[in-house]
Amino acid sequence: MAAALDSAGQPADKAPAMGEKGSERSASIVGEINHSQDQLQRHLGNRQIQLIAIGGTIGTALFVSIGSGLATGGPGNLLLAYATHALMVCLINNSLAEMVCYMPVSGSFIRMAGKWVDEALGFLAGWNFFLYEAILIPFEITALNLVLTYWTDKIPVAAICIAVIVLYAIINILAVQYYGEAEFWLAFGKLILLLIVFFFTFITAVGGNPQNDAYGFRYWYSPGAFAENVHTGTLGRFEGYLGSLFSASFTVVGPEYIAMVAGEAERPRVYIKNGFKTVYWRFFVFFVLGALAVGVVIPYNDPKLNNGSGTADGSPYVIAMQNMGISVLPHIVNALLLTSIFSAGNAYCYCAMRSLHGLACEGQAPRIFKKTLKNGIPIYAFAVTMAFPFLSFLQAGSGTGSAVSTLQSVTQGATMINYICISLTFIFFYRACKAQGIDRSTLPYKGWFQPYGAYITFVYMIILEGISGYVVFVPGHWSVATFFPPYTMAFVAILLFFGWKIIKRTHYISPHEADLIWEKPQIDEYEASFTEPPTRFRDDIRAMFSKKKSSENYMGEDIS
């Protein structure tokens, strides 16, 4: 049974606030590093968290893999599909933000699933997310190799793999603030790249290209806005939309990366909250406008979009630049694309390590993975995670394009399973708050349109995962090789959930029994221990360059 709550929804036995009995202990925490029960350290500041939020949203797929969605569905379907899926992930963000801002613990939604729904769901969520992140590390190293082939294919694949693995190891073995600093600067590279492709789209569309051709939305009319896929006619165009939607399901991500840093964030109920709040406009700018842009610059039937070469030429923006006879810009785009790819792999290393550590904290992975160094790095989780990048060496003996495609297909299912777990966890969290008399308006972040948003995403993600490999069931399209990639993680998820449930004999947690206290008293005490208001993002940037702390402070309403 959860501990009693007072009328304001606060635990009756919560830690005293500053100025009350026990405030001396609270005050001492301000200068300490270790603020959690799991030995991780809250070193990530506001500016780092905000750029991690941006960097976690902008991935390699937005610049490369989005081309396959365009080729499958056409520009109209691509725009509709990306807008649809972006809206759904915004609803995921809405659910996740409320839970994480209330309980910003290490392991985040992984541990919440076990605490508030069923231990078996936590086991499933944790191992699914760990495998998802860990498998994506070699995918990004493979992608980095592909980009380098734009200039030369004479660099040994093994040499590139080793260099990247060493860099990932160095960044992730240091204290978490160094990871945050690396992601802060790498995210700037992603933003610059995004601005370049947006300006390239607009300027060339109105005639600013070597041919002085103001092509505008020409490709929406010829070859057309809606491509046919598998079948012809109306059914084929709808299947084109589905193909673009599957592309969006791999590309449109982000909220989970903000959630995973909550356990190591300074003032998480302010800075993490701000990161979640900015997801909505970022999704519109990055994904909806991104889908619009790529559908403007290149026709969906350009043969290079699906040439299967496995080189950087597969980026739709690079193809468009080459088609227009632009010679320098493709080199700049690909150079910046390297920062995007490297940053993505670095983030996957971080999240995989913290997932394994979170599982160990709940007794769902060997206890050795809980052990951390003095700087708060889970050392044994680090060692296991860094074994996965070596899978990138497989590309040395096979077609690189095939390696990328296979890894992407396998992890696509894991993304949807992850969002299913988050949606279900929020539904149980919502019921628990209601049953235990917690007024959600008193929480640090109250999601809108709840619990309906969580129900919508729960059903949507189940359907999307179920139909993701539908093509193999169309007569004449059956293939074992194409059946398993979209459904592998679904089978793994079923085995994980029921395996743990049967072996451990777990049960669903009733709303009255859900532990909504958990680490809340300690987090409340940590937040109350600060004597100065939080800083604004722009003040952090100004202070970083001026080498002095800004005199202005920020009370948490806005980061602009």
From TrEMBL:
Region (Disordered), start-end ranges: 1-21
One Gene Ontology molecular-function label: amino acid transmembrane transporter activity
Occurrences of domain Amino acid permease/ SLC12A (ranges): 49-507
Chief location of this protein within or outside the cell: membrane
InterPro entries associated with the record: AA-permease/SLC12A_dom, APC_YAT
Keyword Hydrolase: no
Entry keywords, A to Z: Amino-acid transport, Membrane, Transmembrane, Transmembrane helix, Transport
Keyword Phosphoprotein: no
Membrane topology of this protein: Multi-pass membrane protein
Chain segments annotated as transmembrane: 51-73, 79-102, 123-151, 157-179, 191-208, 241-259, 279-300, 331-350, 377-396, 416-433, 454-478, 484-503
Subcellular location: Membrane
One GO CC term on file: membrane
PANTHER family: AMINO ACID PERMEASE, AMINO ACID TRANSPORTER (EUROFUNG)
Protein name: Amino acid permease/ SLC12A domain-containing protein
Biological source species: Xylaria arbuscula
